[in-house]
Amino acid sequence: MAAAQDHQPRTDARKHRIVVIGTGFAGIGMAVRLKQAGYHDFVVLERAEDVGGTWRDNTYPGCRCDVPSHLYSFSFAPNPDWSSTFSPQPEIEAYLRKVTDRFRVRPHIRFGHAVESAHWQGDHWLIHTNQGDFTADLLLSGMGPLAEPSYPKLAGIESFEGEIFHSAQWNHDLDLSGRKVAVIGTGASAIQFVPAIQPDVEELHLFQRTPPWVMPRPDRRISGVEKAIYRRFPLVQKAVRAGIYWGRESLVLGFAKLPAIMKQGQKIAERHLQQQIRDPELRAELTPDFTLGCKRVLISDDYYPAVAQPNVEVVTDPILEVTPTGIVTEDGVKHEVDTIIYGTGFRVTDLPVMDMLHGRDGRTLREAWAHGMEAHLGTAIAGFPNFFLLIGPNTGLGHSSMVFMIESQLAYILDAIRTMDANGLREVEVRPEVQREFVDGVRASMRNTVWTRGGCTSWYLDSEGRNTTLWPTFTFRFRQLTRHFDRSQYLTR
Ligand code: N01
């Protein structure tokens, strides 16, 4: 445990009231809200050279949002120009840039500043970056959970002589045409890039550990007339957004209240598979053995048709090792490939921020979370004063828009800052017993959900099988709980 006093600021440390980390939806949203509330003494530290977070980093072919854009956007910045129901990644990245400029957030951002550590110094935060130190009264993290790619540990991988990259770090310089490609993983990312690269590659070996459920994608282009209406009558777009919100919210009944309902939805996915995959053997390989919703429900109309093409082989035997020229599976078959693409997701329950953050007495977040990630309202952590975490534990969603959850948290954090100002408080730290009670409530609500009872393992669960990532009930409940900062739940100074 490093003592907080060991971390003295360099004399040129830049002092701000508030430091925000990250410029994805969370960090940009926080910055906009701070400015709107009249707080201007803040900086946003961003390790990259532009804004966008996971929507800047994930540029793989076919990348698009699987939540409708009218909902997957800020309520305070509707975009009448979305080209289709489920927007492609470049549009979402461009939207975030536009919001950054429209709300004049860019001057607050320090690009190329990677946060290396943050230490609570007794009455303020000291933040070390690769470009010097910052101090702040309040530290707000917008480092989302889908930021650090997860690489599987494959025996012999260092001997591989071909090209290797992760879907979140796509190698656009590499022309895949004519290549023999191994794709590892069949999650939300892979089902989007597999159909995009399949026509170009010579062979595609798809290493599937667990087949996902795939539903039809009800996408369509948004017409010029619709866009004009949204521009002219913003209330119409608001109504459409509300309709999408409530439609999605009704899904919570199946996911979290009565998982038996999911069996009905599963029939749609079964029919989709039946219609798109004619070969019974391949269909059997692609059929999941868990209840729909236990893992993230995927939507695609072109994944199964791509997988059924003659240049695609679905490999279901586990990977034994990698050789200089291919991948050997446990059945002894060697799959000759010259390119490996990981579609293996992100370090969601093993976040790098856990080692960066040192709270009271120098205790790291990893130490505080030795028995699983937990935070009051997914936002405040006992032992970490004046620190708030956006998209923290149990704020994730399987059915709706994360932007809704982020906006709930933004309101809560702003109310916390206002409460501090109104009462002359220098320090707020959630009471451990308040955090305990909240987390116990979340865990109890998790018991009957499809994520717990659906018969699968997923990245929603940590190494001890606890679901520390998802919000277990309706999102409007989260909105209610985060509407006001309750000072009595906090130790204050
Ligand atoms: O990652 P994943 P992703 N050997 O973790 C497999 C968001 N997202 O990048 O199921 C072999 O879902 C793993 O197998 P299994 C969204 O929240 C959003 O696809 O664990 N295979 C799985 O098939 C999503 O949930 C959009 O058995 C290994 C795959 O790799 C999240 O990002 C679009 C393996 C990983 O799937 C992550 O999605 C895209 C190993 N050692 C992504 N390790 C939107 O549209 C892992 N796998 C909003």
TrEMBL record:
Q: Tell me which InterPro entries the record gives.
A: FAD-bind_Monooxygenase_sf, FAD/NAD-bd_sf
Question: By its UniProt entry, which Gene3D superfamilies does this protein fall under?
Answer: FAD/NAD(P)-binding domain (3.50.50.60)
> Coiled-coil region(s) at which residues?
none
Q: Which Pfam families match?
A: Pyr_redox_3
Q: What is this protein called in UniProt? A: Cation diffusion facilitator CzcD-associated flavoprotein CzcO
**From which organism does this entry originate?**
Kribbella orskensis
